[in-house]
Design goal:
The chain is of the alpha+beta class and 449 residues long. It is built from 19 helices and nine strands. A hairpin with a 2-residue loop joins strand 6 and strand 7. This is Lipoprotein.
């Protein structure tokens, strides 16, 4: 399944190779898809992930997992894909790769180059302190063949990030199985983007949308091209050094920050559905920035990412297929500007709201999800702030914690030296609302303090 470099160039030339920002089209199933152009203001800057944060998140996710003894097969089931290839035979002189036909096996003598590649891989595992088949590449074949080559190259591309992953799981009951599950999940997902007319669905679609929010649409577009180039180079490689060189070249394209996001989100995807992966996202590092970036980058709310059912490559970007009833922020009536939804009661003043709604109940207080600051009232209008959709009742203790949180500086959450309130005031209505709901939930659970 190799694609020659010329074919790769022609294919991506058709899909668009300019440096212009890609468009995301949102298909709601109601009329023609609506185009969303990711905005270039501050909310579009990539989310910076610290190594310790990612290690802690991966360790927490890993405690809930029961990894399969056959991680490659489990990853294929997760993403509902067939193997790209089975076992391969290599002709060293022609450097051609020949897939074995159905029913054939490698019971005959292996080519020497394949034997040496497999031995080099096992030596590398030993040098890294993880003896034996440390990445689980030999569980479906006695040698490093087929998709295992791509997985090995991808693991070498991650470099120090792979070491961080190992550090996160090494003290658990079965660290090798956890690491193999994460690697094969990441590699199998990446392989989805190396086929003609690539698209993802289900959990892979939610993973795609989350990655776009974390790294930006243009960076993700570049990663897809990088995956394709890495696959072609991996298929051609004969020696371990050639695979390592291919991986290191891709590693420079990916960058450490994108690699951390990729590993973290792929780990979260293990054993998930689209809905359950969406439910995990608010507890991950970078969730605060993701909540305010989702609308700017992807045209959907962060809470609505789980409602993305398909993602396909379009000529100038991506098309998101949304579940029935999902709201696209670029659609008419979407709440980017703060218009209250139909049917809710609204007031012109703070006093009018409290008079109209009465008491919040014993031990409870009214809370504005999008805060009633002077700037918000001026920018969005009083009705957008003082209405029954934006004002909810919270227990007083939780309300006090939320208020104190907004008044404090949380640089690990906002990636700024401003208070949470100051940082949030520059965002759109929907971004502030998404963040506000996320803050309530994470403070309630003790994730944010």
């Amino acid at each position: 399944m190799r694609l020659p470099w010329l074919m790769l160039c022609l294919l991506w030339g058709l899909l668009g190779c300019s440096g212009t920002t890609r468009v995301i089209r949102l298909d709601t199933g109601r009329g023609s898809p609506v185009a969303h152009v990711p905005r270039s203001e501050g909310a579009a800057s990539p989310i910076v992930l610290e190594g310790n944060e990612v290690k802690e998140a991966v360790a927490q996710l890993a405690r809930t997992l029961r990894p399969s003894s056959r991680p490659q097969e489990a990853a294929r089931r997760l993403f509902e894909v067939d193997p790209r290839s089975g076992s391969y035979l290599f002709d060293v002189r022609s450097r051609r790769i020949t897939p074995l036909t159905p029913g054939e096996s490698l019971t005959t003598e292996l080519p020497q180059a394949e034997i040496e590649l497999t031995r080099a891989y096992l030596r590398w595992c030993e040098r890294t302190g993880r003896k034996g088949d440390c990445l689980g590449l030999l569980k479906e074949s006695p040698s490093v063949t087929g998709d295992a080559r791509f997985s090995l190259a991808l693991s070498l591309a991650k470099g120090a990030v792979l070491d961080e992953l190992w550090e996160a799981v090494k003290d658990m009951a079965n660290p090798e199985a956890l690491m193999q599950a994460a690697l094969w999940t990441a590699a199998t997902y990446a392989l989805l983007w190396t086929v003609p007319e690539p698209a993802t669905k289900g959990v892979a679609a939610v993973l795609t949308a989350a990655l776009i929010i974390y790294v930006g649409v243009d960076t993700f577009w570049g990663l897809i091209q990088g995956f394709r180039n890495l696959m072609a180079e991996s298929d051609r490689a004969v020696t371990f050094d050639e695979l390592r060189d291919a991986g290191e070249r891709f590693g420079k394209v990916m960058g450490r920050n994108a690699a951390r996001a990729f590993v973290m989100l792929a780990t979260a995807a293990i054993g998930s559905t689209g809905a359950t992966l969406g439910a995990k996202l608010p507890g991950l590092p970078g969730a605060a920035q993701a909540a305010v970036r989702a609308e700017a980058q992807a045209g959907v709310t962060y809470a609505g990412v789980a409602q993305i059912e398909t993602v396909a490559v379009a000529a100038d970007g991506f098309t998101f297929g949304l579940a029935p009833g999902a709201v696209a922020m670029s659609s008419p009536g979407a709440r980017g500007g703060g218009s209250p939804p139909a049917g809710c009661r609204e007031w012109q003043t703070h006093g009018g709201l409290y008079k109209g709604r009465g008491s919040a109940g014993p031990g409870r207080e009214w809370h504005h999800i999008v805060e009633q600051t002077e700037g918000n009232v001026r920018q969005f209008g009083p009705e957008a702030i003082h209405n029954t959709d934006n004002v909810i009742a919270l227990d007083k203790a939780l309300h006090d914690l939320v208020s104190a949180f907004y008044s404090s500086k949380k640089p690990r959450i906002t990636n700024s030296d401003l208070t949470v309130r100051e940082w949030l005031s520059t965002q759109s209505y929907q971004a502030q609302r998404d963040f506000g709901l996320l803050a309530i939930e994470n403070i309630r659970k003790g994730i944010w303090r």
